[in-house]
Amino acid sequence: xxxxxxxxxxxxxxxxxxxxxxxxxxxxxxxxxxxxxxxxxxxxxxxxxxxxxxxxxxxxxxxxxxxxxxxxxxxxxxxxxxxxxxxxxxxxxxxxxxxxxxxxxxxxxxxxxxxxxxxxxxxxxxxxxxxxxxxxxxxxxxxxxxxxxxxxxxxxxxxxxxxxxxxxxxxxxxxxxxxxxxxxxxxxxxxxxxxxxxxxxxxxxxxxxxxxxxxxxxxxxxxxxxxxxxxxxxxxxxxxxxxxxxxxxxxxxxxxxxxxx
Amino acid sequence: xxxxxxxxxxxxxxxxxxxxxxxxxxxxxxxxxxxxxxxxxxxxxxxxxxxxxxxxxxxxxxxxxxxxxxxxxxxxxxxxxxxxxxxxxxxxxxxxxxxxxxxxxxxxxxxxxxxxxxxxxxxxxxxxxxxxxxxxxxxxxxxxxxxxxxxxxxxxxxxxxxxxxxxxxxxxxxxxxxxxxxxxxxxxxxxxxxxxxxxxxxxxxxxxxxxxxxxxxxxxxxxxxxxxxxxxxxxxxxxxxx
Lengths: 261, 242
Prior knowledge:
heterodimer; A: about 260 residues; mainly alpha; ABC transporter involved in vitamin B12 uptake, BtuC; 12 helices; B: about 240 residues; alpha/beta; 6-stranded mixed β-sheet; 4-stranded antiparallel β-sheet; 9 helices
């Protein structure tokens, strides 16, 4: 197998693992739309990077983290419904991104690659970054396990019983933003959302406890990355989309196997 | 003791609570009564710091509310707890929530915490449901799980918002009997309730609220006139039970 394919395969696996660790919390907190919105918000971040000449990933990361924090703050303090706040930021960011890209007159910007992702373009350094991110995500989930659990259950009651969820929540939004931005190249803006939901939904169809669901979500991501990568290579299909189709099929199977309470 | 001075609260320019001056002595079993929309739930949420004060002061055990809340919490049983019935938590997980705030970051609940939680669940008559997922519990069972969580938090104050909701008549009696036992062990209990008959049997202190305070006194000193002022037209129903 050519070296770039091995790098790409590692990229697909680690991209899946990093998002799969977060997926159960995104599902339990019912904020999958936030993942989708932030992946679109990243578009404006990338446009800012192009205009300012900054590293695109870094520009997108700073911008998306800021917006994620802004959404969380506005929802908590300004009594705006989270869905409305997110829609406002999503529309404004996409509009800003389109204006900035048109102003930059950058013909080298490969928009389809950021929309749909292309894991075959991933570099070794980016694979290392995804590996490091997977480790950071794991440590974060292990360290804040009980805080994240009760925050996902009911944030108001977590506050009543003085469970220290504030730091866990701030880091959650920051890490979610970093995960989305770093996964854009392999999964693309459109497919990051699917990767943030499907592995967890499949897992919760099969197991009940959260820790098993996290493990099952990771296993699903690895399995579908391997199968999807193999199929896309054999059938000459786009890798990211093939991985998501594999997850969709697994979701269908898990739906029929769904445990009964 | 909980002391409330000059408390006013408005939502969209509408008075929810007006000029509340209230002292709830330590160790009482206090009931807050009043018609729907009287501001009862708002009052207890203000006491617990769940909604910010607009005007007035609250002191708890001699300390300003904000200072007291830095080191303590209330044992709270809400009227209705919003949760997803598919949420992957057992009854024991929810009871352990009461103690989770005292466990340092990065640490999990130990066997000793679980043993303590199970002992409280036994007291609340819900131990056999410890490993059941919360989506499978009945309303009454979940009410007892929430009470066990409030007790496990080891707060000197238990605050309950209509604890009889979702429990049958026999269940209400044993529920209040358990609360009375906890009160005799030294906990100050503040409960919103509509069940005046049960309240008269178990409570020692009555707070009549209808946006402003109509009475706050020992249960023995309460008379029908005070209740009438609080409830207005519904007095005949109350007199029957009282």
